[in-house]
Design brief:
The complex is a heterodimer of chains A (297) and B (533).
Chain A: E1 2-13, E2 16-22, E3 25-27, E4 31-35, H1 42-49, E5 57-62, E6 65-66, E7 78-82, H2 93-100, H3 109-118, H4 132-144, E8 150-154, H5 162-173, E9 180-184, H6 188-194, E10 197-202, E11 205-211, H7 212-218, E12 220-225, E13 240-246, E14 249-254, H8 259-270, E15 275-280, H9 283-296
Parallel strand pairs in A: 4-9, 4-10, 7-8, 8-9
Antiparallel strand pairs in A: 1-2, 1-3, 1-5, 5-6, 10-11, 12-14, 12-15, 13-14
Helix pairs in contact in A: 3-4, 4-5
Chain B: H1 2-14, H2 16-38, H3 47-54, H4 57-81, H5 98-127, H6 136-159, H7 164-187, H8 197-219, H9 222-242, H10 245-252, E1 265-268, E2 283-293, E3 299-311, E4 317-319, E5 328-330, H11 331-334, E6 344-351, H12 352-358, E7 362-383, E8 388-391, E9 395-398, E10 409-414, E11 420-426, E12 445-451, E13 465-470, E14 474-478, E15 481-485, E16 492-514, E17 519-520, E18 530-531
Parallel strand pairs in B: 6-18
Antiparallel strand pairs in B: 1-2, 2-6, 2-17, 3-4, 3-5, 3-7, 7-16, 8-9, 9-10, 10-13, 11-12, 11-16, 14-15
Classes of the chains: A alpha/beta (297), B alpha+beta (533).
Chain lengths: 297, 533
């Protein structure tokens, strides 16, 4: 079952295509990280899913409901928090939660109190007087206290200090079992710690989308050492990225790593080599490699 | 219902300052309104300072102007509390149901604007001597008018703008549009003729406001909603330009039937030899003198529309288009004794270039008139009592004037000004003390016709107590003295109710009109009779 599913989703702002044929599938129970460079279309895609924008064409379904129909009661199952959301800054934290309570049949007062404690939120302070990090925590608390089936977070960690990020992630991790989470972020190091799936969006298109463990498994930084100065191939395999050489060493990033197959491919391209090493990559390194490859392409 | 009350409670809590300000202004307005017509100028706590301030017309006017502004601000603030424009609002991803949100906002307006005003209106009516329970339908009608012509348009602008500043800019845009339309109307022939266009435009305005509000709450399609408002403006312009004014006048004022007498005979008079041409500007003012006569007894004729067409022998033409001068002819003015007659005229302006081409030629003038004839019914006498008194078909009045400087009768009526009441007096029979040198031998008729063309049970406005003055006085020159004569308690009045009996169209042709003989000084003082503007 998919919590979120899009088919050939397109969103144009006049001549600019912000989302260009997006096919996204977020399985139920997943913590799906939507990553990509600035202007890739992450926020636009999320706003279409939340029925803030209407798509130019294509389809989007959220929790089995067409995104364009998501309104009113449908939001009792969805918690949405965005970095650029305009909160009612004149309200105090406690008043905000008190105001929101009657909107949600599943609002959990005990959980509300727990979140307030966990995030160290002052109930009597106005949202407008809070720091950015505190406001994000208040927004998250107000989006978690009713056990939403789907939590959608748009760049929640941008500009936050590490401690606040940690608190937010901790808060999210505790909800993982009951919710599907879609999070867009640049904070790849943080995402890596809790995402189960990752999708890479570039120029409005999803370049890849898979389980994080599989992604990390298939990306390796490869170092090939030769006896003499190697001769770089005119045409390297498509799955090799950022190839460069220095003295007797050639380095590249393998995006379809399987030990035996990759070794065979190296032999096929370079012939006999002295040594080959495969180093695992962080999500940040993978993201940068993909971004650079996309830019070069 | 729970959601509606939750939103309402939040808004009441959030906007308490704005609510308090509008309530304070309403209280001040009501207090000042009572002061205006009760003559109770010295009552109230702290009169010395506050009363003295309010004696200044400026401050009274300021409060009357600020109250709708405060309401407008409150409406904009509450609507934009859950802004419908933009994509970053917190509330759009919360379980708000648009119908409930709309109802909550409407309830807020009812609770903070309509209800306090209704309460204030009840108190004002009671204080003015009119039992409020007799006027509930009218009070509700006033609320409806306020809702349609202030609340609805303001709410509409608030739904298509993101902030108060944007709304103010939108209001400025609407004002500029109004000025533009006025400028366009001034060059469109006949556009000043009051046909049915106004009511069509009002209906379109209300319908557009309702559609935009519902559309925005249901779909938040701001661009489309703004286009709809622009389309309304365009349609209003088209209506102004494309209205078949001639056809409307022909339909509403059918031509006289064979043998049917006109309500007033208008006969051309020769040019006034004493007229001076004066200094010419770019326009030339022409006046064709006329003699009105042979009106039915107890009748009044209003010139509801007039159009002047000129045709020179060489085929050069000019047409004024339909204009509504509203000139009134009373039968006792036109049916004078043999040897004397009333003189009136039709005044219009021509471009100097046209005038120069035709001024010496005998032009043919066709004067088309749309006339409304009234018959004065229910005539009865009324002697002004001292102090406050109830004048039939008028309201509660007071003739406690400071004779001879202040001659008005001050009146107040519940909900609306009188529909059609004519009050006349013969000043030669006034009970006011005669002044030195004043002669009261000849009859000296003065009259005031209170007219209200609105057919609803109440007029648009904030106060349900409508005040107006009857000017039944006149200056007369006695040798070197200019004496002001008016009415006082004990003076006999004649009250009647003019009723429209027919509307007809008629034409008057003047052949061989030499325009050079009919030009008059362009100084504004020569305007009398039927003036085309």
């Amino acid at each position: 079952m998919s919590a979120i599913r899009t088919e050939n989703l397109v969103k144009k702002f006049r001549r600019v295509e912000a989302v260009n044929g997006l096919n996204l599938d977020v399985p139920e129970g997943a913590v799906y990280a939507l990553v990509g460079p600035n202007g890739a279309g992450k926020t636009t895609a999320i706003k279409i899913l939340m029925n803030i924008f209407r798509p130019t064409s294509g389809r989007a379904e959220v929790l089995g409901v067409e995104a364009a129909r998501i309104a009113g009661r449908a939001f009792t199952s969805i918690g949405y928090v965005s970095e650029n959301q305009e909160l009612p800054e004149w309200m105090r934290v406690g008043a905000l939660l008190e105001y929101l309570r009657p909107f949600y049949p599943s609002w959990d007062r005990a959980l509300e109190d727990e979140l307030i404690r966990q995030f160290d939120l002052p109930r009597d302070r106005k949202l407008g007087d809070l720091s950015r990090g505190m406001r994000m925590k208040a927004a998250l608390a107000s989006a978690l206290a009713y056990h939403p089936k789907l939590i959608v977070l748009d760049e929640p960690f941008t500009g936050l200090d590490p401690l606040v990020r940690d608190e937010l992630i901790q808060g999210l991790l505790e909800r993982v079992e009951e919710s599907t989470i879609l999070v867009s972020s640049h904070d790849l190091a943080e995402i890596e710690s809790f995402a189960s799936h990752v999708g890479y969006l570039e120029e409005g298109r999803l370049r890849f989308s898979e389980e994080l463990t599989r992604l990390v498994e298939r990306f390796r930084e490869v170092q090939v050492t030769f006896d003499g100065t190697p001769c770089l191939p005119e045409k390297a395999p498509e799955n090799w990225m950022q190839m460069n050489s220095a003295a007797a060493v050639v380095r590249f990033i393998e995006s379809r790593f399987e030990p035996e197959r990759t070794r065979a491919e190296i032999r096929g391209v370079f012939g006999e080599v002295r040594d080959v090493t495969f180093s695992p990559m962080t999500l940040r390194e993978i993201f940068l490699a993909m971004a650079k490859a996309g830019r070069n392409a | 219902m729970k959601q509606i009350l939750n939103i309402l409670r939040k808004d009441l809590r959030r906007f308490w300052r704005e609510i308090a300000a509008s309530l304070a202004l309403l209280a001040t307005y009501s207090w000042n309104d009572v002061r205006g017509w009760s003559g109770d100028q010295n009552s109230g706590v702290g009169y010395d300072i506050i009363g003295a301030l309010f004696a200044q017309r400026f401050l009274s006017g300021l409060v009357a102007a600020l109250l709708p502004v405060a309401w407008a601000f409150l409406i904009v603030r509450v609507v934009q509390g859950e802004a419908l424009v933009g994509d970053r609002q917190f509330w759009v991803t919360r379980p708000y149901e648009w119908k409930k949100l709309l109802v909550a906002k409407a309830l807020f307006v009812v609770l903070t604007i309509n209800l306090p005003l209704l309460l204030a209106d009840f108190l004002l009516l009671a204080k003015a001597g009119f039992p409020p329970t007799h006027y509930i339908a009218g009070l509700l009608w006033m609320q409806l008018l306020l809702s349609l012509f202030l609340i609805l348009p303001m709410a509409t602008l608030a739904t298509v703008t993101a902030s108060v500043v944007q709304t103010i800019l939108a209001i400025l845009g609407v004002a500029l549009y109004g000025i533009g339309v006025g400028a366009v109307a001034s060059v469109i022939p006949s556009s000043s003729f009051s046909g049915p266009v106004g009511s069509i435009e009002a209906t379109l305005l209300i319908a557009t406001c309702v559609v935009v509000i519902f559309w925005q709450y249901a779909r938040r399609k701001t661009a489309a909603a703004r286009w709809l408002i622009a389309a309304l403006a365009l349609v209003a312009d088209l209506l102004l330009v494309a209205t078949p004014y001639n056809a409307i006048v022909s339909r509403e004022f059918p031509r006289l039937g064979p043998g049917e007498p006109p309500p007033v005979y208008l006969s051309p008079l020769p040019a006034d030899p004493s007229s001076e041409a004066g200094v010419f500007g770019k326009e030339i003012m022409i006046q064709t003198p006329l003699r009105p006569s042979r009106m039915a007894e107890n009748s009044i004729v209003i010139v509801s529309g007039v159009k002047v067409s000129l045709e020179a022998p060489d085929g050069l033409r000019w047409n004024s288009g339909w204009v509504s001068p509203g000139t009134k002819f009373f039968s006792d003015q036109t049916n004078l004794s043999p040897g004397s007659f009333m003189r009136t005229g039709i005044t219009f302006t021509l471009k100097r270039s046209f005038f120069e081409q035709v001024k010496s030629e005998p032009v043919k003038a066709r004067i088309s008139l749309a006339l409304t004839e009234y018959r004065i019914e229910n005539r009865r006498e009324f002697v002004i009592p001292p102090g406050e008194f109830l004048m039939p078909d008028v309201g509660i009045c007071s003739a406690e004037t400071t004779y001879p400087t202040d001659m008005e009768i001050h009146c107040r009526a519940p909900l609306r000004r009188p529909t059609s009441t004519l009050i006349a007096a013969d000043l030669s029979a006034t009970t006011c003390p005669a002044q030195a040198g004043e002669s009261r031998d000849a009859p000296q008729n003065v009259r005031e016709w209170l007219q209200n063309s609105d057919s609803g049970p109440a007029d648009l406005g904030i106060s349900p107590v409508k005040t107006f003055d009857l000017y039944l006085s006149e200056y007369r020159v006695y040798g070197a003295r200019n004496i002001h004569t008016g009415i006082c308690p004990g003076t006999r009045l004649v009250i009647g109710n003019p009723v429209a009996v027919r509307r007809i169209g008629t034409e008057l042709e003047i052949n061989s009109l030499r325009l050079a003989d009919y030009r008059i000084p362009y100084d504004g003082t020569s305007e009398f009779g039927i003036v085309l503007r």
